[in-house]
């Protein structure tokens, strides 16, 4: 179609945004090296008001890289990171990449079972873990043949006065310290790597086409798949993001890292894009609006990425004089639908524009965004990024584009598109066409101006709090419970469009369902955000003629009859 062939939608871009970005060269470590040269004394990171300059960050990266090299890490090896947002996370990320090794990110709140599945898949021998998560990794050491487990005490990244305060023998200090750190015997402290000498400059930088990260994502089956992203993929997406916000000034911006860096959305904006921009990143180990408010007193944000639940709480705090939004010029929301009412409330407290974007792990992650101008369109996720082609095709035929305004599957192609799934050629072939188009699995509509609206998710993923939850993974845990015959997990909309994981179960004849016991058992298998908040007992599940459970029908029924659901665990 003419609109897609000519990318005519670029006429609605923000002034100064080009249709294309130049081809990228270099690597992520070379990007950091350049930032250290350009912005050496500029704060690269702030953690509880402790600043780390770009020059100091690069020095730390070289020291930790040398320490890892002495442990045997070499180009092509996978190194697992199991860390919350912290200075050590950023340092470890770039240190691994500087050796030409591959970073694999993991949620530090995962259960041992969830970690085992992913660690076994990518077979890393070195794990850098938050000391509060190290015990779970140690459980797997012999089983998976892990060679080195390096533990991180994130309080070491705080100001010295804060570290001393946390060690005071008083109840409040002990409670605060217990949330942040704990002893991790039988592991190597991260500080040992930090005390290494600098990596020799003779160690070659990775190439643009080398793999940088393997980022796990869930597909229709719920089996974790590692999306392979190169240095070039991530550099390209950061360059596209830079072009999308031409008003940001290199070396002068402050970005808030509220999104977890083990998620590709947070990783891109906090660790890659920020370095390209020479920005100061304010790190939060977990989202806590009181911490955000405190940080904004000294380091107010100028660019604020987030997800709707975060932004909602920030708006409430800003109205009460908490979070200082006076310097924000750009804000972007992703991972779940942005309610227009939330945008209106945002406009009441902040002069900087809030827009919605769209992406997925397989796209590094951003594909589409609303322009930062009056052209931003409510209810749409936006326009294709520079150097990004999109088309909306018939569900059964990738070669047949549907008419504008008709529903179809969104396909995308560009320099940010991933290289495939780790050790999964069949799934790769199902997702990537031979000519490089990414099948997103999302049902969309594109209007005559090129703006895209998400209609539904073919993959049936549940999006809760900005996280993707695979229904089949939850169902596997549910079906392991005594007395459960079968189950279905769906997302039920509550509040302002947010979803909660809802479990519909069918019991064996004569069985009685004990919710409290079920929750306790499920916590052994599932991370907190995957746990069902609502349990509903039905006599049977709706199925099609071949016996497949109709999750969409279940979700629609529950959304119509919300009063039939009981929420026991908010």
TrEMBL record:
Classification via Pfam families: AMP-binding (PF00501), AMP-binding_C (PF13193)
Domain AMP-binding enzyme C-terminal: start-end pairs: 473-548
PROSITE patterns: AMP_BINDING (PS00455)
Occurrences of domain AMP-dependent synthetase/ligase (ranges): 32-422
Entries under SUPFAM superfamilies matching the protein: Acetyl-CoA synthetase-like
Transmembrane segments: none
InterPro entries on file: AMP-bd_C (IPR025110), AMP-bd_C_sf (IPR045851), AMP-binding_CS (IPR020845), AMP-dep_synth/lig_dom (IPR000873), ANL_N_sf (IPR042099), ATP-dep_AMP-bd_enzyme (IPR050237)
Name this protein carries in UniProt: AMP-binding protein
